Amino acid sequence: MSDNWREAVNQTINTAKIDDINQYVAPSSSINDSPIDAFYATIQDISNVAKPDFLQQHPSMGTLLLVGLISAIENYFRDLFARIIRICPIAQAASSKQAINLGSVILHREGLVERGAFENISFADVGKIINTCRKFLKYELKKNGITNGITNELLEEFGKICELRHGIVHSNSLLAGKNAIKLKIPNNVPNEALKITVGYEQLQECSLISTMLIASFNTEMFEEMAKRWAVDWPKLPSWDSETADALFEQIWLSFYSKVDEQNSSISTPLTMLQCKNRVKREFT
Question: What's the pLDDT score for residue 252?
Fold first, then answer.
């Protein structure tokens, strides 16, 4: 037993280290999926774990799974924004003055290097999503799009989830005062902290909001990219009509959900060629 009074408050200290950092990473094939399908895959993984009995027995897991859900949403936006910049000359011009980390260029020089532009942006923030659309894509999310009203309504609900996330990540699930005020949650017991609790019903609710947000945003941005392909890009000096079909295919692959196709949840099932022809008919 030590006589050192400094060691009277917690367990004995020993050194610790990561033995092999390579064991913490593995190659991911999800980068080849459309962003929406990569999102769906994570949602499915969370759903497979988040059973009522499990969450009841392990209450802290609900909040952690909610963080995983929001992480999947953030990755969707990073991936989709990067793909749009790679495809769209209008987005390329809008984002050309934005900074990118050299580390991303070094790591992803053979892949989707555009993702590096979003490494320092948190998309667990509605304002950041709107501003990134404006600054990088030259798209006003609050004004355009066939799903605009739905997208904006869902963004508001997603904003509430982001306020909860802040307390989970930064305060061990204790809700900070500013977040509680934004959520309009009354503190009926002023001398006690508010703890965030996420059970099965709450996780299902957040999952539905998130899925509808991603689906709505995906539809809205697909409409915009299709319109740019048919109307705006052909007016640019860089346009080459011989690459038009290949460019539409890139758009299609960036937005099309094979998961929704397999689930028969696409309301207007079309092949890529059928869709392309309808876009041409409407805009040209």
Answer: 98
Distance CA 87, CA 72 (A): 23
Distance CA 5, CA 201 (A): 48
Query: Cα–Cα distances in Å, from 34 out to 77, 179, 230?
Result: 11, 33, 22
Amino acid at residue number 3: D
CA angle 32-36-37, nearest 5°? Answer: 55
Considering only CA atoms, which of 17, 36, 45 is closest in space to residue 75?
A: 36
pLDDT one-digit tens code per residue, 104-161: 677 766 557 787 778 888 898 999 999 999 999 999 886 655 555 678 889 999 999 9
